[in-house]
User: Which sequence fits this backbone?
């Protein structure tokens, strides 16, 4: 079975709340989609905005390996000759080898939204498809609202498809525009519809019922050979069918060779790269490509996965360019700990007494609210301290931080610190935007003299979570600090009812981690 | 058709990377699930960690409307008598009316992960289920890896279910533990399996193929009457079937009355509340409950939706407690403001000059990171201050907060404050668990003498969000404080690079709001 992949990230995906692609963004994404092995790239709707016209001009300069560029448009307007319709003229001016033309297939939309007759709508479909065919285009007919229309007036919905087929459309793409269809409903409709047409059928699903990917898989199972979707499922409201899930499902589960093995291996990278361009965070839990998609937290899972990955992994993560991760948590058992320690270059035996003691400490700390998934450097330090593999590079004698505010003026913060480093007592002071910043400032002033490598350490992220917020201002807080130097980054954690104390713990660990590296 | 909803947010959902529920969190979620109309609430695995044992003790104190609490465990260990198995003893000690017992159904797992014989595994299932039944429990048998096992060795997978049925299991729940099944595969399997059993079947799906919700819908379509899932689809790796999508699909699309109309209307609120407790951001694009789930950006959609919502909405958003959103223009900003002010008992005209000024201030504050959705009392104070409807009850002269730490001892915090109240200068000092707590203490010591009604004010929630976390310890933070007295609760907000300053703003607003009420 052969499938064509049609990406509409640049058109339907651009409707996502929060996305605003520049022409340059669109060209970058076009290149990535081509590298991923996408067959059709829908670049935009030239009739709807000038940015898309610019894109279609610029994209001609790209040397693509395989992908064909597609321009999108509605059918001609009611009561207008197709050759006089501006929108259609702009569509052809985009000079793409392929056009996608969407036409209404739900009688209610025709009479109430378009305010025209059912027959005129059929003529609009026919005229527009014929005109594009006569201009030498490959034509994808997007049957808008097909599933809803077919439910309400099946006869008319079928007539719309027939009009497009008779006019020479190359693909009849069934759209679930409102995203309300479930898999078994799609199955029933496609099984009924398919026998009426010789033209290949396609599927364009939305995710409003969280079924976009599944509906797409079902449609292919029922014989649709053309698949539309977007990278990361971008799209209006709840998004479109997510190609980052559809592609591996087709290739690895259904055995359809829609991209090469090599292209599939780039899936995770390309998903993240497009998210980067879109400037949207990617969910860690996104199937196949998310950071946590193959992470294991439960102790039982970890010990089984270590022996046989297939016990708790539906595919091999490396096939889609992702990787297995084991995370540390209270639910983890000895297996996690031994596995992790090995990662840190520490060999320990499952039945060693210090392992039992470590598990006890770990459980106690997690009960207090420590969380090592994001603060793994603190965990590594904890393990190495408990096993006496490292000694602290500096010790606190004392610190004082003073916050003062007068009337409406901003708060002034000052920190004083005394440390013991290599047997010497050292003092310093710092100022800052807040108590933690002042403490950071003072601490660095002392330490950087003795450990110049700490100058490379940048704090790149600082998070505060209140743990038991019912306690009001006496709540316990967890502070997570992300740090990085030129070669890598690491996370540390601290917990206390005092945000300054929690930050202090995470700061100390951040610097200590750098010093043992 | 009647369906039972089984929520495992507190057990499988707690496996989510980034989630770490306290016992208090779990109790809060339990209450919310009960209000949503969930029939079974799986609270945890008492044999796996002490926190869950604590939860089962505490949950007995809750008065639930309908939900039954479930404790989870594996079957007994191989070659151990069920009455001698510690895990099983702990399970029964949880004293829940229902237990969920998971047993292996995939031959490969039995021989390779459990390292036992196929027959012993059948005995483990039978013994454990019988033992729980004899103890008077309602038993849900979770058939782990059922779909994968059935694919590899259907005969053995069926035997495992039969063992549970013969031992008296009340529900046989088919688990797609690795989340690799697609809707049409689930359909085929359930259609083959169902005729073999009289016991009701259940479905427990994971989302590794982004099909968790769809597979669940399909299973119900094929006759499963028990549905497992989690709020917001929390769960290990890519999560479990998302009940926030499954419930509205069952109720509104499949017409199954699994919750009442009134309960369904609370879906959006409960989804957001659980996300808040989990301290994870909720995707704006999450189906049904996301902020953008019914938002319209495209011009065509907006004008059509204005006339006929069903043109681009698969359900009415208010049915799930969500709302339609259209890209906000400046005009609607003003309309909102006028609407809100009226709520506060302040009549203003759209074209009044102070409205323009208020909009300007508001935009500036939102740009700085203030967010008034959770801090609406601060918004009300802002409006009333700008319109000169209120005057402050007290003014800060100055405060000083000192944090000091010596060696490994806990940090000591002391606050001194000087206020002007009714023309008098008043001083006080306070101590606390952290700088904000100490400030709260000192502030109350002064104010409660002059405004005894402040004694009723309890701070019930305290949240800190880092806004620009790339700035490290110099990041801006937003503090939200929830306060309540005997009759109502209110939220206030403060923003600063200094957490003490931001907390101060929110504290002052909290007290001022009480005083103007």
Assistant:
């Amino acid at each position: 079975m052969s499938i064509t992949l049609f990406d509409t990230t640049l058109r339907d995906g651009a409707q996502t709340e929060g996305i605003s692609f520049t022409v340059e963004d669109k060209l970058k994404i076009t290149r990535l989609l081509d590298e991923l092995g996408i067959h059709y790239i829908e670049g935009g709707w030239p009739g709807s905005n000038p940015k898309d016209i610019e894109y279609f001009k610029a994209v001609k300069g790209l040397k693509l390996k395989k992908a064909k560029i597609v321009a999108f448009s509605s059918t001609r307007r009611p009561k207008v000759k197709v050759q006089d319709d501006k929108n259609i003229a702009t569509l052809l001016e985009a000079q793409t080898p392929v056009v996608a033309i969407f036409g209404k297939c739900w009688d209610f939309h025709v009479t109430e939204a378009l305010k025209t007759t059912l027959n005129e709508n059929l003529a609009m479909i026919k005229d527009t498809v014929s005109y594009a065919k006569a201009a030498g285009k490959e034509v994808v007919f997007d049957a808008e609202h097909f599933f809803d229309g077919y439910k309400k007036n099946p006869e008319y919905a079928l007539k719309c498809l027939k009009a497009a087929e008779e006019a020479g459309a190359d693909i009849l793409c069934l759209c679930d525009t409102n995203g309300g269809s479930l898999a078994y409903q799609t199955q029933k409709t496609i099984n009924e519809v398919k026998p009426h047409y010789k033209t290949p059928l396609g599927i364009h699903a939305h995710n409003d019922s969280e079924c976009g990917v599944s509906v797409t898989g079902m449609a292919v199972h029922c014989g649709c050979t053309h698949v539309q979707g977007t990278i990361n499922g971008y799209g209006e409201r709840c998004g479109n069918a997510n190609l980052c899930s559809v592609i591996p499902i087709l290739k690895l589960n259904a055995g359809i060779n829609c991209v090469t093995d090599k292209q599939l291996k780039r899936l995770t990278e390309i998903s993240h790269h497009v998210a980067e361009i879109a400037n949207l965070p990617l969910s860690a839990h996104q199937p196949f490509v998310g950071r946590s998609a193959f992470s294991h937290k439960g102790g039982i899972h970890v010990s089984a996965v270590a022996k046989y990955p297939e016990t708790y992994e539906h595919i091999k993560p490396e096939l889609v360019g992702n990787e297995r991760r084991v995370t540390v948590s209270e639910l983890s058992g000895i297996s996690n700990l031994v596995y992790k320690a090995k990662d840190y270059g520490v060999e320990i035996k499952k039945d060693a007494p210090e392992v039992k003691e470590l598990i006890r400490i770990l459980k106690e700390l997690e009960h207090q609210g420590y969380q090592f998934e994001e603060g793994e450097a603190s965990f590594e330090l904890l393990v190495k301290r408990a096993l006496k593999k490292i000694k602290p590079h500096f010790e606190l004698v004392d610190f004082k931080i003073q916050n003062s505010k007068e009337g409406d003026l901003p708060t002034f913060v000052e920190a004083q610190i005394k440390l013991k480093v290599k047997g010497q007592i050292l003092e310093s002071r710092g100022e800052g935007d807040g108590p933690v910043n002042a403490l950071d400032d003072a601490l660095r002033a002392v330490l950087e003299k003795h450990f110049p490598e700490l100058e490379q350490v940048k704090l790149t992220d600082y998070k505060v979570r209140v743990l038991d917020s019912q306690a009001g201002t006496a709540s316990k807080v967890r502070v997570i600090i992300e740090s990085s130097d030129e070669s890598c980054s690491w996370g540390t954690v601290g917990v206390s009812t005092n945000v300054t104390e929690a930050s202090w713990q995470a700061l100390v660990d951040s610097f200590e981690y750098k010093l043992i590296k």
Observations:
- DSSP finds 18 helices and 16 strands in chain A.
- The domain at 349-388+458-517 of chain A is CATH 3.30.160.340 (Double Stranded RNA Binding Domain).
- The two ends of chain A are 52 Å apart (CA to CA).
- The mean pLDDT of chain A is 91.
